[in-house]
Amino acid sequence: xxxxxxxxxxxxxxxxxxxxxxxxxxxxxxxxxxxxxxxxxxxxxxxxxxxxxxxxxxxxxxxxxxxxxxxxxxxxxxxxxxxxxxxxxxxxxxxxxxxxxxxxxxxxxxxxxxxxxxxxxxxxxxxxxxxxxxxxxxxxxxxxxxxxxxxxxxxxxxxxxxxxxxxxxxxxxxxxxxxxxxxxxxxxxxxxxxxxxxxxxxxxxxxxxxxxxxxxxxxxxxxxxxxxxxxxxxxxxxxxxxxxxxxxxxxxxxxxxxxxxxxxxxxxxxxxxxxxxxxxxxxxxxxxxxxxxxxxxxxxxxxxxxxxxxxxxxxxxxxxxxxxxxxxxxxxxxxxxxxxxxxxxxxxxxxxxxxxxxxxxxxxx
Length: 365
Prior knowledge:
Layout (H helix, E strand, L loop, with lengths): L4 E5 L1 H11 L10 H8 L2 E2 L3 H9 L9 H7 L4 E4 L5 E4 L5 H7 L8 H7 L6 H11 L5 E2 H9 L8 H5 L3 H9 L3 E7 L2 E6 L12 H16 L4 H10 L5 H10 L4 E6 L2 E6 L3 H6 L6 E4 L4 H4 L14 H5 L3 E5 L2 E9 L2 E6 L8 H15 L3
């Protein structure tokens, strides 16, 4: 890792560069799956928020694009960061799953005792699930019934009937299955290895190095603490491994001074970063957008500390120059904006333009 500070920039410049990386300034023209890949992951806790996160980064979009991308395998949906459902790109999403499964939770004594599945039983259980899904997607109830037909797993049916998210999560972490298109408003699961775009689960160290590179590429310049937050607290690789992956980048990582704070960026991005001016763009983003989830709401450069609570609790975001500067809510056909005030008055014309754009995307305009 480069030890000497190589350039000095401001946080306004840093966020301006990150705005470009996030397809926010300028708004991008990439297809929905490419937006997901650029962000690394898109939370799918609420499908309307996930779709808005993608569509607000596209100059032209249509409703349902993310759902169609899932149906044809151009994106996958799995349990990933913090145990929640996320959209990932099939070509490189496996690197996050490699990190997520590194903790091998299914081998813990509490897990083994609760589900009565020894670690040695796990390969057979995984194979049984893949076989059950061989004919096509199943709802969780149907999957439970298929497993119950096998004496070795009959005792698991009550867990599956109750939702069994904890039991099923490692099956997505290890690439055995992913979420399929919903059926009658129910989640379905499908084989992941039948998706021709799926690149599989890479070696852990290879996955870790790539995940660290991608983080600096999308969320840099960043401190190690921010990266540990996203890849450590959010997955299961552990602090020691992540520190090793950061160190292993060596001279590929450059150190920059950002308003007196040391942060890192990939060396290949250094010239572009230092030449980027601050952004003045105003953007309306959904709650739990990757703009704040990636660095974390504790990052005071993105989320003012005094406003962290409503953002963490799911307020929709107004950002100005990359800083969360207000919230918005939808009341019938009206978009109501609450400006925090600390950064100064918003650019009224820009804010009105973004309200109009949001109304058009949401179909209220």
